[in-house]
Amino acid sequence: MSLSFIRGKHSFRLLPLLLAGIITYIPAPLWAANNTVQIDAERMNMFHKDNRVEFFGKVHLVRDTMVLDCDHLTAYYVDNKLTHADAEGHVVIVQDKVHGHSNKARLDQLNGKLTLSGKAVLDQDGNRIEGETIVHDMNRKDTVVTPGESGRIHMRIESDEGNNSVIVPGTGAGK
């Protein structure tokens, strides 16, 4: 199954995420102004009364330079405008040089938040951040990374010389 969508006037561009002195990027929303979204899946169910559409089985979404793959994608809308979308199962998001993956992802279009949850990871140019949950507020341009069972997040910053630099919060001189 292959569907194409063209949606409303509101758009978020690729937004910078300033984190510990490095800049990385979070993917833009699934539906944005004047952009076609191509979705391939094994099956689709549309629930008009509930303002919901679900895609099942090897879901593959492409919008501009962003690609989303997952097992199940549910999009919720009001007045033909996306309010939020949930991706579940083997979630992989790639945009330009940014690669993210997690067990689940939620785009809250109304509040401008992208949440990766369940072994969440973002990679860009050798830089990497890992946690149980990564929440990026696209309006405020800030990010919160929550640790998993270990009680810690992990971040790796690739130095200009090609040597890995590891920054682990809570460590350093005198500790």
Automatic annotation (TrEMBL):
Superkingdom of origin: Bacteria
Signal peptide annotation: none
Keywords from the named record: Signal
Transmembrane segments: none
Domain Organic solvent tolerance-like N-terminal: 38-140
Gene Ontology terms, MF aspect: glycolipid transfer activity
One annotated Gene Ontology cellular component of this protein: outer membrane-bounded periplasmic space
Record-level GO BP terms: lipopolysaccharide transport
Protein name as annotated: Lipopolysaccharide transport periplasmic protein LptA
InterPro entries (UniProt xref): LPS_export_LptA (IPR052037), OstA-like_N (IPR005653)
Pfam families per UniProt: LptD_N
Keyword Ion transport tagged: no
